[in-house]
Every structure is written in C-alpha cells, then in structure tokens.
C-alpha cells in the first residue's frame, strides 16, 4: 500500500516573539538608523545578536493543539540540516531537547521559552498554564543552539514573518 500526498497546506501552529536584553543595543550601533528591510536582510546583525553574551528569549505560544512528537519532528527537520556533522555533544543535546517534547501533548496556549544564556547554552521551558516556572532541559551545544537560532532568525527562517517583525522592532529601537 502506498500513501500519496496531494497537497501540503500550511497551518499556523504558533505565534512567537523575541526578547533581548536591552543592553544589546550597544552591540548593534553599526545598524543605528537602518530601515527594517535593511536590518531584516542583514545576517551579520542577527549573528551579532546570537553571539552576544547577553540573554535572549524566544517565546513561542501555541495557537492550536499539537502532539509533542509532531512539534519536535518539525523542529528537528529544521535543525538537522543546519548541523553539518553532529558531534557526540550535539547528539546528546538533541536527545535532551527531544525528550522535552516527546510523549507530551501540547495544547493551545502552551508557552515554550527558549532562553539563550550565551551562544552555547540554552534553557528550554514549557508550561501549559501560565509562565514556565521550571527548566525542562539545558542544551549545552554551540552547534545546536546556533542551529536553533538560525531556524527562527537566519537567512532562511521557518517563519519569515517572525524575522520581519523582529527587524521592525529593532529598527525602532535603533533609531
């Protein structure tokens, strides 16, 4: 028996926002006065944000119910091609990351916080009722944390509208 896919329909699963430590603006002076379009197209600005030692938080809010495995599979499919040759450290980090989502129903309204403490350390927190109060996983792999940042804010983001929104916000802050 063969299964055929006739059409792929894009369905919005989440809304997201990026929160940056306000002090990061001093590291972004080179882009002061730039338009949102210039900022959005400038990968070096987003690399500067990622490489900053200041904390960054990507908040994801699910706008519909989704199975944890389905969520992880989509995330993994986006992360994996961005890591050319995964090391043992990368594999361990991906396993820890995967364990947060597998066997976990993610209901509409679930909050997922991805907090980069620095470029090689990421905290993952998930909550179905209000702000997360615990850390579900600590990811310590520069390759994985970089790939994840790239998934959302790199040159080919999974959500171009998120990157556009972040660029618009940055253009206002960097006036």
- CA-CA gap between termini: 59 Å
List the strand order in the largest sheet: 1-2-5-6-7
Instruction: Based on Cα principal axes, name the global outline.
Output: globular
Average pLDDT, all residues: 91
Write down how many β-strands occur, each being a DSSP E stretch of 2 or more residues.
7
Structural class: alpha+beta
Helix content range: 25-40%
List unreliable stretches of 5+ residues. Answer: 1-9
Number of H/I helices: 6
Describe what you observe in this structure.
It contains 6 helices and 7 strands. By secondary structure, the protein is an alpha+beta fold. A 5-stranded antiparallel sheet has the order 1-2-5-6-7. A two-stranded antiparallel sheet has the order 3-4. The chain is globular, with a radius of gyration of 17 Å. Mean pLDDT is 91; it is low at 1-9.
Task: Put the structure in a nutshell.
This protein has helices at residues 36-40, 43-51, 68-79, 88-101, 142-153, 160-173, and strands spanning 14-20, 56-62, 66-67, 105-106, 111-118, 121-127, 137-139.
């Amino acid at each position: 028996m063969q299964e055929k896919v006739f059409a792929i329909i894009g369905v919005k699963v989440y809304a997201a926002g990026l929160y940056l430590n306000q002090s990061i603006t001093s590291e972004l002076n080179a882009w002061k006065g730039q338009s949102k379009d210039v900022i959005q197209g400038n990968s070096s600005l987003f690399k500067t944000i990622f490489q900053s030692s200041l904390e960054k938080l990507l908040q994801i809010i699910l706008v519909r119910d989704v199975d944890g495995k389905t969520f992880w599979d989509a995330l993994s499919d986006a992360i994996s091609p961005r890591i050319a040759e995964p090391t043992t450290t990368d594999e361990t980090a991906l396993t820890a990351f995967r364990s947060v989502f597998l066997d976990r129903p993610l209901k509409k309204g679930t909050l997922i916080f991805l907090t980069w403490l620095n470029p090689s350390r990421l905290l993952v927190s998930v909550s179905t009722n209000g702000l997360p109060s615990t850390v579900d996983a600590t990811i310590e792999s520069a390759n994985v944390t970089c790939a994840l940042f790239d998934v959302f804010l790199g040159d080919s983001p999974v959500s171009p509208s998120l990157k556009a929104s972040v660029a618009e916000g940055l253009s206002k802050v960097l006036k």
